[in-house]
């Protein structure tokens, strides 16, 4: 079993709305270092299934590493969503679930920058972690636009109200309720965001909402490098299964230097084998979740050289511009490559 797979106990279940609940996990002392995380990251949770034995789902952490000792994921039911409905219906205090250690690249590079946070529905989950962390540990202003169908579907409403009182000069929250104002349009959002064009921007929510946000950000002139998009994906594979790494048949390799967990490793990288498989095959405990290009758990930075991704469902243009790649999909192009797992 990978050292990234652990069992955590739920110590509290918080009903946020009729359709959403927060699950609070206790982290044993011996696992504290393994579960250190950045605001905006997620946990991958194994959920029992009568049909397939189990399924894996990624849920963003709504807790802040600068405030909370426990890990908190917030889950909202989705129509025909097996994972979310199972968790909301079956998890109680004392439930033990297998999880992978935190991962993901939807993370501010600095908490001192001014942040524009755009969320809809359960997209508030990673946004909440970022907002709390920035206000507690950073120095910038936070402007949050949060869209929901109606007041009854607002997650963290009371907590947001308390944050406004505690940080009146640094936090501004705009609640956009569809029941009162209709769906937000590009023009609506551009008008709201016109003074935030240079803010570091984080967007999370349903695809139509994120598309409107991206269009509005283009209207006000926000540079692409300032825009970070989080996508919700249902994993098709089983990241909790035993890892089997296929033998390489390549006759050609690239020379690679990998920075991971505070050390530098030189390897020969076969040109037909994804980097993650090479590292796991050598017993190197690299981060992963889906191993299928469907999440960002294995994201790493190409410091020099060139790689090619076989598949990419998660990294957006701003991520690629920063040199990010997915280790589970990356194969070498150049003769030498330097890569750092620094997310």
Give structural notes.
Helix content is 21%, strand content 34%. It is of the alpha/beta class and 343 residues long. The protein has three domains: 5-103, Elongation Factor Tu (Ef-tu), domain 3; 115-230, Nucleotide-binding domain of ferredoxin-NADP reductase (FNR) module (Rossmann fold, 3-Layer(aba) Sandwich); 253-340, Ubiquitin-like (UB roll), CATH 3.10.20.30. The two termini are 23 Å apart. The model has no long low-confidence stretch (mean pLDDT 92). Strand 1 and strand 2 (20-26) form a beta hairpin. Residues 3-109 form the FAD-binding FR-type domain. Its cofactor is FAD. GO terms for molecular function: 2 iron, 2 sulfur cluster binding; flavin adenine dinucleotide binding; metal ion binding; oxidoreductase activity.
List key phrases describing it.
Elongation Factor Tu (Ef-tu), domain 3; 18 strands; Rossmann fold; 5-stranded parallel sheet
Quick overview of this protein structure:
Its cofactor is FAD. This protein is α/β, with parallel strands linked by helices and 343 residues long. It has helices at residues 82-90, 124-137, 157-166, 178-181, 186-193, 207-220, 275-281, 317-321, and strands spanning 5-17, 20-26, 42-49, 53-60, 71-76, 96-103, 115-120, 142-148, 171-177, 200-204, 227-230, 253-260, 263-270, 299-304, 307-309, 324-326, 330-332, 336-340.
């Amino acid at each position: 079993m990978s050292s990234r797979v652990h069992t955590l106990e739920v110590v509290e279940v918080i009903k946020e709305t009729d359709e959403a609940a927060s699950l609070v996990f206790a982290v044993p002392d011996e696992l504290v270092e393994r579960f250190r995380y950045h605001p905006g990251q997620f946990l991958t949770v194994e959920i029992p299934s009568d049909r397939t034995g189990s399924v894996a789902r990624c849920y963003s952490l709504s807790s802040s590493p600068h405030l909370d000792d426990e890990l908190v994921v917030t889950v909202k039911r989705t129509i025909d969503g097996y994972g979310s409905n199972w968790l909301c219906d079956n998890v109680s205090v004392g439930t033990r679930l297998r999880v992978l250690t935190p991962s993901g690249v939807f993370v501010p590079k600095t908490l001192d920058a001014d942040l524009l946070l755009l969320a809809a529905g359960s997209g508030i989950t990673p946004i909440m972690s970022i907002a709390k962390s920035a206000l507690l540990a950073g120095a910038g202003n936070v402007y949050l636009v949060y869209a929901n169908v109606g007041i009854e579907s607002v997650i963290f409403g009371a907590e947001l109200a308390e944050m406004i009182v505690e940080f009146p000069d640094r936090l501004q929250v705009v609640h956009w309720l569809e029941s009162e104002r209709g769906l937000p349009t590009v023009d609506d959002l551009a008008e709201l965001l016109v003074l935030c064009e240079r803010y570091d921007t984080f967007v999370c929510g349903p695809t139509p909402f994120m598309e409107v946000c991206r269009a509005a950000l283009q209207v006000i002139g926000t540079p692409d490098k300032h825009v970070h998009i989080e996508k919700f994906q249902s994993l098709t594979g089983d990241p909790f299964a035993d890892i089997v790494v296929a033998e390489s048949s390549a006759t050609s390799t690239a020379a690679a230097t990998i920075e991971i967990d505070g050390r530098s490793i030189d390897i020969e990288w076969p040109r037909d084998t994804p980097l993650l498989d090479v590292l796991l095959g050598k017993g190197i405990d690299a981060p992963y979740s889906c191993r299928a290009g469907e999440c960002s758990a294995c994201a790493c930075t190409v410091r020099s050289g060139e790689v090619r991704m076989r598949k990419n469902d998660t990294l957006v243009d701003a991520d690629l511009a920063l040199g990010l790649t997915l280790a589970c999909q990356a194969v070498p192009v150049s003769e030498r490559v330097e890569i750092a797992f620094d997310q």
